[in-house]
Amino acid sequence: MSTFLIISTTWAVIALVLLIVAWRLVRVGRSVAHRNIMILLTVGAWIFITNYIFGQRYGGDFRSFPSEYIPWIALHGSLGLVPLIGATCLVVGRLMTGRNKISTHFNRHHKAYGRTFIVVWLFTHLGGIFNAVFMH
Ligand code: HEM
Predict the structure, then answer these.
(1) What are 73-115's pLDDT values in tens digits?
(2) What share of the chain is helix, strand, coil (3-state, %, to 5)?
(3) Higher pLDDT, 4 or 113
(4) Residue 110: which of 91, 96, 83, 85 has the closest Cα?
(5) Which residue CA neighbors atom 28 of ligand 1 most closely?
(6) Residue 108 contacts by C-beta under 8 Å, 6 or more apart in sequence?
(7) Which atom of ligand 1 is nearest to the CA of 38?
(8) How many helices (H) and strands (E) does the chain have?
(9) pTM
(10) Range of 114's domain?
């Protein structure tokens, strides 16, 4: 396994656990802890994706996937963008509370969006762990 794969798989496992912890915390009323973990995970996800894109482009490691896996990889990447952008909207919405209509929208529907994004996010990490274990 390459260093990148080891780091990304470790991150996926940690993030999976933290997502569930953050969800459980808010269910028992610990919203500050929930908020802090979700901000950490969202920032972490952006760092991971940026590093991945630059690594692919400039890292010199151009190993390609077998062509039959390309639809799955495309699905995994596209689905991954949903909770990434969605979580960013939830975080920015909370941080800008009361300042504009978009934040009001995301704050009002925080629970519904949050539940949807967390499920897709968990699925994306499971997919990432699957990729690391079975494709390399
Ligand atoms: C990364 C983005 C976030 C996601 C995916 C997310 C997810 C969720 C989910 C799933 C729930 C509902 C729990 C349930 O009853 O099943 C929830 C509730 C809550 N979250 Fe977040 N959350 C995020 C960011 C934040 C941030 C930044 C704050 C800032 C304070 C926050 C504060 C709360 C609060 C107070 C609740 C309680 C119910 C409500 O306000 O609707 N969350 N969140």
Answers:
(1) 899 999 999 999 999 999 999 999 999 999 999 999 999 999 9
(2) 85, 0, 15
(3) 113
(4) 91
(5) 35
(6) none
(7) 1
(8) 5, 0
(9) 0.89
(10) 3-134
